[in-house]
Amino acid sequence: MDIFNEMNTRGHEQILFSHEPSCGYFGIIGIHDTTLGPALGGTRVWQYASTDEALNDVLRLSRGMTYKSAVAGLNLGGGKAVIIADPKRADRESLFRAHGRFVDSLGGRYITAEDVGTSPQDMEFVKRETRHVAGLLNLSGDPSPVTGYGVYMGMKAAAKQRWGKDTLEGKTVAVQGAGKVAHFLMGHLHEEGAKLLVSDIDAEKVKVCVDEFGATAVAPEAIYDAKAEIFAPCALGGILNDDTIARLNAVIIAGGANNQLADERHGEAVEARGILYAPDYVINSGGVINVYGELQGWTTERSKRKAQEIYDTILRVFAIAERDGVPSYQAADRLAEERLSSVAALKDMWLAGDR
Ligand code: NAD
What is the distance in A from the centroid of ligand 1 to the CA of 110? Predict the structure, then answer.
């Protein structure tokens, strides 16, 4: 891979490659854009097959964080780190303290947090070497309540756009996954009087939702064919694809899972079927709002109030889609880019403190 060429094409500011031989640490930290603030994004631990594969993940995921924080209205840029190692590796202190030292070397330009293959305990090791870390034990904790609430607000906005009223009472919502985000989402939906269909490969988790929310259990593969007005993907990525889009009965897709579109062209395919799609990284931004809240010392209630704004943001995305005649997933990118360029323009104004 021609690294400078990739950075130029995708707009990255800085990539740090680091090595600590004493513990076999190999890490890459990617800073995509710091127009809005320090680059925030989790650290992923994965046994990548090659350095190129690891670098590609850093480039892709750090850029995604710039867009996610931009549309969430946070004063954060986009970054991401990967450590090339077995995620189940036992000797974690040396690995994560080495990582913390490299994070610290960036002087706060990058703030790390948990991601795939890391835990709050790992972040405690990072914390011993740097203060530029979030997602610590006993602080903001599990982001799922805020994420689930944000998805609920975004779903109501999609209902408003589709039906002119944001009430979900009496609507049938097919929820894929009965994990943490889905559970909190279903709590809000049940309280409002929505009918719930739920699927998960873990039957125990489905049973909890049946008992707690009166949900109807659906077999995992059957969730795409379910008779529901709203489909809420809250498990895996890539589930909107050539096979599944044609099977959906829903007229709204609004769920918490990351990377729902298998490919960008599936964003067009959803649109062509007349389905309103609430873009994933906008509707699930409660997670990053929660981390931001931790950095600001907010309570969960305050973070939830910020996540309430997802309602207006989703409506703004749909308005841009109509204004520009583009699918909603592209409209979300435009919203992010508009905020980035408007804030960047402010910095052209000279202040007395500027050199
Ligand atoms: P989780 O692990 O608690 O839940 C995921 C659930 O999906 C599990 O119960 C799992 O058994 C189930 N699942 C796996 N394969 C399935 C299949 N084929 N059919 C049905 N169910 C299946 O994870 P979570 O924290 O609730 O996250 C869910 C999604 O939301 C993920 O895509 C995650 O990246 C995204 N997300 C989460 C947060 C957060 O705050 N937790 C924030 C932003 C995005």
Answer: 26
